[in-house]
Amino acid sequence: QGTMSFLKLAHKSLAAPAANPVTQLYRSVNKELSRVLVMYDLDMELPEARQAIRSHFDRYAHIKDERVVSMLVAKGYIDLEETLLQHKQRSHMQRTLSGHIDMEGARRKSVTGKSTIADQFARA
Fold first, then answer.
1. Which partner for 97 in 31, 35, 52, 111 could form a disulfide, CB atoms 3.0-4.6 Å apart?
2. What letter would DSSP give residue 25?
3. 98: closest CA among 44, 57, 34?
4. What is the torsional sign of CA 107, 109, 110, 112?
């Protein structure tokens, strides 16, 4: 029963004509945010999580093309649906909400011009 309501969330909101679909998505995400924090057992205060969500929306505030905005809104609803259906792992949500991407692992595997044969062998 509860899962069906999540699945219908995107269809319902996209079907209803809204004056501003971005605002509608933002409200939908904020409405579900406390549930997401509990589901994924995240140690983050609600205002801090809301600020992280706000920063994601602000990242695309400069886009004015209606087709691109429509695509981003659809992608936002898909991400919300996947989150509510727990298709993501806890670490994915932590990274999304904290905005921190650890590149140490990626740098560890990079080969530079100064890499020795032993470094290249250890990389594998």
1. 52
2. H
3. 44
4. positive
Tokens coding 72: 């981003």
Could you tell me which of 31, 34, 42, 48 has the C-alpha nearest to residue 90?
42
SS3 letters for 92-104?
Answer: HHHHHHHCCCCCH
Its pTM stands at 0.69
pLDDT tens-place string over residues 22-79: 999 999 999 999 999 999 999 889 999 999 999 999 999 999 999 999 999 999 999 9
Quote the crossing angle between the two packed helices 21-39 and 2-15, to the nearest 10°: 160
